[in-house]
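Quality-control log, excerpt.
Job 1 of 2 completed; input and output follow.
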Amino acid sequence: MSYKLAVNEKDVYFNFESCTFSSEELDKHANKKLYIHSLDNRLSKLYILVTNSCNLQCKYCFANCGTYENNRGSNMIDMDTFRDKFLELQKNYPDGIDIIQFFGGEPLLNYAFIIECIQFVNEYCNTNKIKIPKYSIVTNGVLLSDSWYNELRNYHVFITISLDGTISVNDSNRFFVNGKGSFQQIYNNIIQFNNKEQLTVEFSISDSLIEQYYHDMAKDIIEEFRELGFQFIITNIIYSDDSIKVYRENYKTYKKFINDYIELLLKELFSEQCQLYDIQLTNLVINILSKADVRNTCTCGVNNLTMNTDGQLLTCSMSKDILFDFEDKEVTLDELRKSYCMVTPPESCQSCSCQKVCSAWCRELDNKETMPYKCTLIKVMVKRLLTLLYSLKSNKADMKMLIHNIKEFINRMG
């Protein structure tokens, strides 16, 4: 399908099949291909839900402070459970795992398990001559002491701290059970770290920011993160029911924010010191530059899996269904994985001009339907990105810088 752009008072078409620009519209029909994935011998990513407990009560938390829908059994995963299930999982993925991410709840509440898990997996991989996975952890940072930080760094663990910007915005979202904000304690932890090379911040943008928004607010927050020493800044817009309600009531502000936000992101992507990435925009760039002839979406259930505290497998941490229980001998994991290899998107996606490159739709959220306010964001991103790529298509230096920054993102995030 072609996407129409108005550039310098003339029509330009971007063909999503060939990922090329043209002066003529080549295809008026939407790409209605299924989302197709292959079964690999190496698992791309394993999320481990280390614990169901959390020491914060973030107001937009989709996990109910870590409990999720199907993770309400054991409070914390133990090493015996993980060891048994990991060895079973390796039968399906004999070439190992690319990335293991420790998640929760607050994973640092089960810190001893994390260290023992890394040691066990490394020993297993060395013994079986398998490439050792990368490790990452997503934490709220409350418990991250200098000694734990340095130990995790010694194991080459990439550390992501969730922090939502200025103290007023963060503390209106991320607070303790008693209602006290978390910013100051996290800040006090971060400033004591000497080497922040492996430190990433995940900046969730929600209704609290929109209600307080002023021009360049996102830019000011990003600069604060840089001053704190974060080497990598990942942004994510929250689409919870409460946030969508505020976006609807403040739609002009929401649209103004989107325009400012995308301009900031695009400027960063072409800069020599790129540190800021929005996952949706970055995936759009990857899909366009890779010129993939088969539409891909999230590989959860196929090449991405989540292990809960009981050692059961979910398609992802947000799934409401158990994908596989290792105690069930009536069906194999491979049989279940095959059902996720071909996925039909919603009708609204199939008729959308952005469908070929968009990765916004999630089959585990919003009853498997699209989110209109998220679609608004993606459509603005696609238009701005394609317009910019068209203007720079002969600028080899800028395109080389863009490709370099995207490769840095892939290397960091997997």
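Job 2 of 2 completed; input and output follow.
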Amino acid sequence: MDFKYGVDSRPSFGATILYGLQWLMICIPVVLTSTFVAPEGQTLFFTQKLFAVMGVTMIINSLFGHRLPLIAGPAAVLLMGVLAAAQHGGSSAEIYPSMAIGGVMIALIAAFGLMRKMQSLFTPRIVVAIVVLISFTMAKPIVGMIFSDADHQLLAMVFAVVAVVAMAVANNLLRGVWKSMVVIVAMILGSIIYYCFVGFPTEFVADSAPRQLFVGGVEIDAGIVIAFVFCYIALFINQVGSVQSLGEMVGAENIPARQKRGMLVQGAMNVVSGVLGVVGPVDYSLSPGVVASTGCASRYTVLPAAVAMIALAFMPGAVSVLLTIPQPVMGVVLLFLMATQIAAGLHMIHTTSATASFKDGLVLAIPIMFTTILSFAPQSAMQTIPALLRPIVGNGFVMGIIIILPLEHLFLKDKKQ
């Protein structure tokens, strides 16, 4: 594929800024849709820290890590880990140190050259399962966001159907820069339309709790640590896939070395995230679509977006305005993004022939069903589970991974394997 600018090309200053603005329009929604796990009364400062971590991650990776035009955002698998642990009584002092431990784990895997051995465990079916399980696990928080306004739930339901269909149509019809703007435009227009029905806010978001730069205290809960280990296994696959797909697309040299450097950066920045008490980063796999549509593969074009995100971290007023986007609109955007995730998984099934038989389909279907059921399991049922196992069993995504690994490699193993 021919590009106007290659990976190491340096576009003019004006072109770099324009391409950077495009990346920024993608980065902002990625951060904003991850703020629902913020500690109560600290949403504003939590979001500022997220912008800073993601911006720094993008700068380091584009210049010294994998050196590719990839954007970083809060990892969905870690969002689920935080949410599941918090729902079952986990505190920030237990959750975020566990995240830091996970960051150390993937950094060590990269540093000691264990990435290829890890990758051999993940067959196409397991990779598809990870992609799809993320979306199914996010269903419960998405439902909570869409119907968060008890006085306008019918409006929220109608709005969700119309908005998601409109986003899908726009995503199908638009090309180039406009295609990548669908989510941010949906957030802006969706907020205006929604507020036209329920009334516009009279004040912006502000924190009611004291600001904490670092996580308050360190407590180790073995169950939460184990749950996050499985979350980081999924993050590992996500990161490898993002670098591999874009690297091959742009014809980058020495992809294994880029993989190693990129994973080291992600590991280090996940440790930083754990210390700061925010969700850790991962490179998003939507970058190849943006690169293909613009014809620009230069890694330097993500730098303006990264710098702007760091600047936003020091502009609480601007972040406060961004956070006025209503929860139902955020939920609808997340619904669309998770639908695209499922679509990507279904496409992978086709391209990799991951379900060539009924047995192959069962390998995928069983963990998906367990993930969905456990995600909506009543709290009373979870309380009957021993405290050590509760963070693991209570995390539908983690249980899905635990179930599919023996199904794929032991109980329903292909004879040719």
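Post-run check on job 2. The radius of gyration is 21 Å.
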